[in-house]
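so my prof wants the structure for this chain in the tokens format not the other one, which i didnt know existed until like an hour ago. anyway here's the sequence
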Amino acid sequence: MVKFFYILQIVSAFMTVVLVLLHSPKGDGMASIGAASQLFASQKSTEKGLNKVTYFFVGLFIVSSFFLGYLVK
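here's what i got, hopefully its the right format
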């Protein structure tokens, strides 16, 4: 059980770092990568989706941290 939460925490930490690095400081985000701006309907929806996925992995990291805090003594 503890091993599962360790793996979950490592994966969620890695994904959080990758997703935060995908965000653009100017607000362009993923829509500014190459010709991807023509593939997406609007860059606001792209950033909105990227934000939701990032929040999910951050929440997963926090929950796994709490469980590891209680399970590992």
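also thought this was worth mentioning. The longest helix spans residues 43-71.
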